[in-house]
Amino acid sequence: MKSVFRITLLVAFIAMVSFTHSQAQRIITGTVYNNGEPAAGVTVEAHRGSSMMTSFDGKYKVEASDKTKWIRFTSVTDSERLDISDKQGDQFDFAFDGKLPGESESEGENVNLKSADELIKDQDREFMNQLSLFNEFYKQENFESALPHWRQLYNNYPKSTLNLYIRGVNMYEKFIEEAQSQADRDKFVDEIMKIYDKRIKYFGEEGYVQGRKATTWLKHKLGGDREQSSEEMKEILQKGYDWTQVSINEQGSKTELAVMLLYMQTTRSLFLMNELPKETV
């Protein structure tokens, strides 16, 4: 009786080992990034597999199976899940901001140019999940938590909805307001400029957007107590002047009053700096 019992246990053990082996026959590797840099201290967990924490180089190596559907990446402040159920290979790099180093924002393989209505009709779960999370955090004005989800949408679904660009600018305006250094403020201003440019690319309205771009640029670059050389001042004013001029040429009688006033002010300032001839003024 004991021998039969032992044989039964042995068979069960062998079956369990075989099952475990079949469930962990894949080795998935990759690198985790945050803000363009390898991210250390990120927990990487494979569905139906193992987990580990990345070191200083951001690299990870986890066991998985043929039935593994996702990999979860968890940092101190964020947790994201990468769906790999329809992806080939065993190497998956991941970036919390949705943009891997060296990857073009407009030419990445994950870019989908469908509208939000089309994506919802297609039941694109990644889009709907990211949009839902972004909207929830945005409504709470928790912009730090909303930002990673916004970046996923901004990079991978750039033509889904105009609200991505409007709300993106709103968030970065708040970041500028709360920034502790001039360098950070300038960095956020540059991000807003990129958002405006991308908005023009996918939604047009160049005249209107260039006016908003000039307004934001001059407001933040000329305000505050920053020290600027005459050359830096000329460069700032020249960009504002060029953008307002484009806006006026495109908008005509529909030009916003603020844009017209900025055009007049930058024209006068550049004239006084001998950067514009009196005939132009």
Characterise this structure.
The chain is an alpha+beta fold. 53% of the residues lie in helices and 13% in strands. A hairpin with a 2-residue loop joins strand 1 and strand 2. Helix 5 packs antiparallel against helix 6.
Task: Give a quick set of tags describing it.
single chain, 281 residues, alpha+beta, four-stranded mixed sheet, four-stranded antiparallel sheet, 9 helices, 53% helix, disordered N terminus
Secondary structure class reads: alpha+beta
- Distance from N terminus to C terminus (CA atoms, Å) equals 107 Å
Secondary structure: helix percent: 40-55%
Global morphology: elongated
Report the radius of gyration as a whole number of Å: 26 Å
Could you give a quick summary of the protein structure above?
The chain is α+β, with helices and mostly antiparallel strands and 281 residues long. 53% of the residues lie in helices and 13% in strands.
Write the layout of secondary structure elements.
Layout: H1 2-23, E1 26-34, E2 37-38, E3 43-46, E4 51-53, E5 59-64, E6 70-74, E7 79-83, E8 94-95, H2 116-121, H3 125-139, H4 143-156, H5 163-178, H6 182-203, H7 206-222, H8 230-251, H9 257-272
Parallel strand pairs: 1-8
Antiparallel strand pairs: 1-2, 1-5, 3-4, 3-6, 6-7
Helix pairs in contact: 3-4, 4-5, 5-6, 6-7, 7-8, 8-9
